[in-house]
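Is this the right way to post structure tokens for a design question? Let me know if I should format differently. Anyway, here goes:
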């Protein structure tokens, strides 16, 4: 996937697949808000605008500060949320099997 973290000028950080990038806009598929680590130290993801009918949103480039690649673990976590049928492969061999 082409998943990216998009920092908006309003302060939100969205993790989503960029499905289209135009001269002035970016189309995001299944965006999630990246929530800061809680008491357990884990980063949270929450669907952005879960009450909207569409899975894609269009944002204007002037409303963004930057776009970066997510770390592999965060990217995998995002995929497990938005595509629950995705089979996750363990990164390390299972012990005792």
């Amino acid at each position: 996937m082409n998943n990216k973290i998009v920092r908006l000028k309003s302060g939100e950080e969205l993790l989503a697949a960029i499905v289209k990038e135009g001269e002035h806009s970016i189309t995001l598929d299944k965006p999630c808000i990246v929530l800061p680590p809680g008491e357990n130290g884990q980063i949270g993801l929450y669907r952005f605008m879960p009450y909207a009918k569409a899975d894609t949103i269009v944002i204007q480039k002037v409303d963004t500060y930057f776009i970066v690649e997510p770390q592999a673990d965060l990217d995998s976590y995002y995929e497990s949320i938005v595509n629950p049928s995705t089979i996750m492969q363990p990164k390390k061999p299972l012990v005792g099997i």
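Format looks fine. Someone answered above. Worth noting: The chain has a mean pLDDT of 88. The two ends are 31 Å apart (CA to CA).
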